[in-house]
Every structure is written in C-alpha cells, then in structure tokens.
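Lecture notes, part 5. Sequence design as translation. It can be helpful to think of inverse folding as translation between two languages: the language of shapes and the language of residues. The source text, in structure tokens, appears below.
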C-alpha cells in the first residue's frame, strides 16, 4: 500500500505542520509563563507565599502527568495512527486553555494545569511522525528543525505573554487557546496519516502504555537503552536553567528581569540558528555519533564556565558553548529511531518523553536545593555556581555512555538483539 506521504510535496506540508504544532505548543507554554504567577497570586488573595506554593505544585503535577501520559499517547499513535492523536491533543489543549482562562479558584486552575499536562504529551506522537516520514539520514536535520520550533516558541512566547498579561493575566490563556484551535483547523486539512494500517501495532498494549512498562521496552534495544540514559542526563542537566538561572544571575551579576529576558532571548536565538543552519550540514558531514559527542562536550565546557563566572562577561562568553549542546538532542533522537521498528516508534518516543518528565520532577528541587545550600551563610564554602558544576557532571557521564553505546560494534549488537523473538 502506498503511503500518502510518498510525494515530496505532501511530506514537506506534513513536516511543516509538525513544526507549527511544536512551535504553537511551546509558544502557548511560553505565553502563560509571565501571567500565570500573577493570576495564581490574585486567586490566592494577594499572598505571594501561597502563590509560590501553588506554582511549585503546578510544576510538579505537570511533570508527573506527562510522565504518565506520554507512553499512553505513544502506544495510541502506534495502534490508531499519528494523525488522530496529534489532532485530538491539540484540540484538548485548546479547550483546556479556555478552561484555565475561566477558572475562578486555585483548585480549578490546578485541574486545568493537570489537563494541559495530559494533552501537551503530543510531542511523543510528533517525534514518531517525523521518524515515519523521513529517511534515517534526514532525521537529525528534521529533529533539529523541531528543536528550532522549541527555541522560537520559548523566545517569542514569554515576550508576547508578558505584554498580554500586563493588560490582563487571563488574556494569554485566551490567546493561546485561539492559536491552538487555529492549528487544529490547519492540521485537519493539511496533515495526512504517516503510519499506514499494515505498519501499525495490532493491539493496544497496556504493558507498554504505563510508564514503567514503556521504560522496560527500551531494554529490548541495548543501544536505545544507553541513548535513553544520555537523553535523560542531558534533559536533567538543562533543568539548571529554569531552576536557578534568574537567582544566580541576580546574585552574581545584579541582572534584573529585563536583562534576564534579553539574555534568555539571546539563548533562544542562538538555539534557533544552530538548529536551522548547523545541525543538518554538521550531521551530514560528520555523522550522528560525532554530533552527539560534540554537543555533549560543548555543554560540559559551557556549564563549567558558567559555574566559575563571577562577572557577566565570562558568563556571556560561555553562552555559545552552552548553546551548542543543542547538537546533542537531534543526533540522539535520530540514532534512536534507526534501531526501532515502525510499529514501536510511538511507544519508544513515549518512554523517552517519560524520562524527560522524570528529569522535570527531580531537576528543579536538586538544582534549587544545591544553590540554596552553597549560598547559605552556614555553608562550608560559598559556591553559587555549584548547580552548573553538577549539571556539567551529568553531561560528562552522558559523554561516557554515548561513547560506549554508539560505537559501531554496539550498534550491531543492538540491531541483532532487537530482531530476536521476544
């Protein structure tokens, strides 16, 4: 049976939709970031302390829900196709933004945030979609473009959200709902199915739809299991940014909200440029393994310099090195998809997204806690950069694991193990 995506024009239109979907997901996420704390504070009766408690609860609940729901969406997309899962997720997210815009109490807003965690897991099906419609040689470039959508969304979202929330803290939610609904309409007419019926999983398997079962699935693919550890460590390390960057920059350099915003914008721009201009040619010339090791190595160097930075210019000099870590994620994703059968791409992507969610549960507390400990007056050593050193250690371990599990001999063993009967 011929796939509707065999035509290059159809493939380009489908990949453009996936790009727009990821862009809107992260744009919507960025839109509500500036206004959500103020809305929570208003619903908490003006108490900043109570608002901080609820914001922490929101973040943890969001990560936990994504941990649970990502493998479910992956298995659903393997069984019923990518298109319905992606479109229903976008529709659910649009409805949920309306729900949060109308929420008149903290418990109702919390419920809305939990539901948004359910539908935001559509990235799982989107990653599987890319694996369906691209050749192995082109996947790193395609995942790089998705990374550019991620960066662009997190650059533009907070800027636009800050302006809208200045008018009304609920306005970003309405705007995000409108954007997401437009994306649903766009996808309904543009997005073809990427997984034909004969390549789908024959049944919905609950053993792989739960997060623990989905992680066990990774053991069937030894190389994927090692790369999953690298992806986890990489995402865990990057949680140092949202956890301590604002507090660290204020303490070390005296940067306030406006300066922090410009620096984060610069990081986003660098990330987009690297994803769009460098990753495709770099992977094509040097290979996915070299790109992965290069990205992780640059990340280690960047985080070490961040940790030692006691003046602003040192931190700024390190930004290009830290941002070159962007090379690692598309290369790792491309290597993973090479080892996995089409009918299991969704569930494997779900397992990987669950690992990222675990990083979101563990990372903020670990990095914020270490920052607080090493700046406390009673600490045996004053070391504000400690969280960045910890992040560098994680990436260093990732380099060692990636070096071992991406060797040609390891790839051959992984392929042989994957085709053995289970």
């Amino acid at each position: 049976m011929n796939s509707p995506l065999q035509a290059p024009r159809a493939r380009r239109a489908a990949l453009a939709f996936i790009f727009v979907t990821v862009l809107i997901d992260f744009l919507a996420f960025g839109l509500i970031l500036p206004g959500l704390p103020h809305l929570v504070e208003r619903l908490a009766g003006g108490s900043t302390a109570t608002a901080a408690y609820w914001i922490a609860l929101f973040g943890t609940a969001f990560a936990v829900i994504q941990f649970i729901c990502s493998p479910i969406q992956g298995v659903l997309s393997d069984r019923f196709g990518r298109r319905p899962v992606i479109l229903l997720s976008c529709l659910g997210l649009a409805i949920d933004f309306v729900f949060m815009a109308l929420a008149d109490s903290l418990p109702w807003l919390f419920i809305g945030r939990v539901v948004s965690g359910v539908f935001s897991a559509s990235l799982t099906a989107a990653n599987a979609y890319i694996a369906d419609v691209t050749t192995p040689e082109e996947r790193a470039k395609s995942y790089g473009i998705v990374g550019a959508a991620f960066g662009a969304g997190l650059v533009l979202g907070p800027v636009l959200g800050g302006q809208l929330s200045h008018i009304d803290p609920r306005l970003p939610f309405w705007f995000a709902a409108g954007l997401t609904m437009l994306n649903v309409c766009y996808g309904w007419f543009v997005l073809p199915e990427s997984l034909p019926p004969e390549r789908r999983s024959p049944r919905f398997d609950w053993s792989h739809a739960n997060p623990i079962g989905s992680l066990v699935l990774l053991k069937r693919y030894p190389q994927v299991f090692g790369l999953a550890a690298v992806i986890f460590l990489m995402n865990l390390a990057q949680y140092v940014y949202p956890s301590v960057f604002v507090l660290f920059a204020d303490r070390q350099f005296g940067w306030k909200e406006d300066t922090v915003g410009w620096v984060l914008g610069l990081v986003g721009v660098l990330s987009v440029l690297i994803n769009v201009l460098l990753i495709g040619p770099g992977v094509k010339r040097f290979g996915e393994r070299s790109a992965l090791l290069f990205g992780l190595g640059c990340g280690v160097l960047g985080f070490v310099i961040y940790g030692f930075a006691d003046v602003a210019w040192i931190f700024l000099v390190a930004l290009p090195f830290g941002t070159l870590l962007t090379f690692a994620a598309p290369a790792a994703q491309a290597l993973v998809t090479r080892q996995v059968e089409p009918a299991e791409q969704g569930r494997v992507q779900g397992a990987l997204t669950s690992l990222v969610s675990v990083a979101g549960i563990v990372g903020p507390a670990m990095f914020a806690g270490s920052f607080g400990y090493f700046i406390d007056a009673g600490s045996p050593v004053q070391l504000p950069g400690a969280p960045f050193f910890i992040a560098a250690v994680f990436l260093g371990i990732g380099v060692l694991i990636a070096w071992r599990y991406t060797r040609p001999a390891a790839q051959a063993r992984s392929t042989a193990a994957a085709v053995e009967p289970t």
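The translated text above is only one of many valid answers, since several sequences can fold into similar shapes. The chain has two domains: 7-187, 207-422.
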